[in-house]
Amino acid sequence: MAAFRFSGTFLLLALLLLVNKAKSQLFIGVNYGQVADNLPSPSSTAKLLQSTSIQKVRLYGSDPAIIKALANTGIGIVIATANGDIPALASDPNFAKTWVNANVVAYNPSSKIILVNVGNEVIMSGDNNLISQLLPAMQNIKNALDTACLGDKVKVSTVHSMTLLKQSEPPSSGIFDPSYGDVLKGLLAFNNATGSPFAINPYPYFAYRSDPRPETLAFCLFQQNPGRFDANTKINYMNMFDAQVDAVRSALDAMGFKNVEIVVAETGWPYKGDSDEVGASIENAKAYNGNLIAHLRSMAGTPLMPGKSVNTYLFALYDENLKPGPTTERSFGLFKSEDLTMTYDVGLSKSNSPSPVSPSPVTPSTEPKKSAWCVPKTGVSDAQLQASLDYACGQGIDCGPIQPGGACFEPNTLAAHAAYAMNLYYQTSGQNPSSCDFSQTAMLSSNNPSTNGCSFPGGSS
Predict the structure, then answer these.
(1) Torsion angle, CA of 148/153/156/161, rounded to 10 degrees?
(2) pLDDT tens digits, 85-101
(3) How many CB atoms sit inside 10 A of residue 2's CB?
């Protein structure tokens, strides 16, 4: 009996660890820019991050105060070298060793540094001298990490702009600008050999600014839309994020680097802008970031990379009030630097989820009631199911039960997860028939779709 109790306890602990790991959502990170004079103390920021489901922080430098403040939190830290340091890093291995010792080794293992980015958007800088020295600098940083026995724990990469792509529509035709072909081959060979990611900055917001039609906005915000059909793959893309990331995937594959992982180093939406900056609003920012987070949490991945969420760093933790340029440049912060409250709620807090959609008032009726559930119609494509799942979970309903460890995670299929979310959205919207439309892909059913251990809320028709 003692052995049985030990086994049961061990199994319970293992299950709890698995659930906790699932809830930690390692694929969600945030950018921490510092072009500001009103930022909270590093210790306050560390406490804020620990109160959220954010598990990784990307710095644009290697601020020791921040790195120290994040010690023993378990939060992954991405640091970076300045573009101006690249020539010295490339030409002098000892300079690279000194840099690694001062900015990585000094904080290991208390601070969990996971990646060193050598520069930021160097290729698109137009500085050919800097571009030619990028790969040697990365190699010297990598060698220094290996010497310090940290090469397996800390990867080395660099961050690229989406303008590196010559073509991105449709996603299957994504290709990089051939004028950077030789440089990219060397960088990608490095990524491939060392297991480091290809980091890119996709911003659907900028795509919308160049094409401000209502259907483009819905496509960018993960909202209901007809989608955009890729005739080559026969995939109907339902959101711009997936389309942009898959365009990068296609470009990498076209160069023969099918195994290089993609990391989204930056993506976000401004909540405020000047009068001529279309689309910058709290409503749109909340929709984009909230629906993106819901999409990542669904673990659906993209059409070309299904079943796994792309590691994504949201832009940004705080506003940077000293950034030059239009108002949008200073209006991406998810949290307010003055009091650490949310600029708007996208469900990142561990203690609070977005408020559920308030049920609409229903006029009492003397007609007999019968239970009804909102379910997907037969023959609905995976892309449509994914769009419905993202939309429903992005509206503030509790999609926790279909997360790993949740009561309705099994069966772990897109159809089952979408059905749960679509029905819950319908039920919490006052059982309004219009809430069970989902671009004509859903219907009301009198058949209870609940399964063993997973109860679908049922309303009345």
Answers:
(1) -160
(2) 999 999 999 999 999 99
(3) 6
Tokens of 92: 């002098």
Q: What is the pLDDT of residue 351?
A: 67
Residue bearing tokens 């940290």: 150
Residue 56 CB: number of other CB atoms within 10 A? Answer: 22
Q: Which residues contact 251 (CB under 8 A, 6 or more apart)?
A: 165, 174, 175, 176
The Cβ-side half-sphere exposure at 151, using a 13 Å CA radius, reads 16
Q: In one letter, which amino acid is 391?
A: Y
Residues 6+ apart with CB under 8 A from 2: none
Q: Return the active site residues.
A: 121, 266
Listed residue (376, 387, 357) closest to 436, CA to CA: 376
pLDDT higher at 370 or 276 = 276
Query: What does the pLDDT average to over 188-203?
Result: 98
6 pLDDT exceeds 60? Answer: no
Quote the pTM value. 0.78
Helix/strand/coil (H/E/C) assignment for every residue in the chain: CHHHHHHHHHHHHHHHHHHHHHHHCCCEEEEECCCCCCCCCHHHHHHHHHCECCCEEEECCCCHHHHHHCCCCCCEEEEEECHHHHHHHHHCHHHHHHHHHHHCHHHCCCCEEEEEEEEECCHHHCCHHHHHHHHHHHHHHHHHHHHCCCCCCCEEEEEEEHHHEEECCCHHHCEECHHHHHHHHHHHHHHHHHCCCEEEECCHHHHHHCCCCHHHHHHHCCCCCCCEEECCCCEEECCHHHHHHHHHHHHHHHCCCCCCCEEEEEECCCCCCCCCCCCCCHHHHHHHHHHHHHHHHCCCEECCEECCCCCEEECCCCCCCCCCCCHHHHCCCCECCCCCCECCCCCCECCCCCCCCCCCCCCCCCCCCCEEEEEECCCCCHHHHHHHHHHHHCCCCCCHHHCCCCCCCCCCCHHHHHHHHHHHHHHHCCCCHHHHCCCCCEEEECCCCCECCECCCCEEC
Q: How many CB atoms lie within 10 A of CB 312?
A: 24
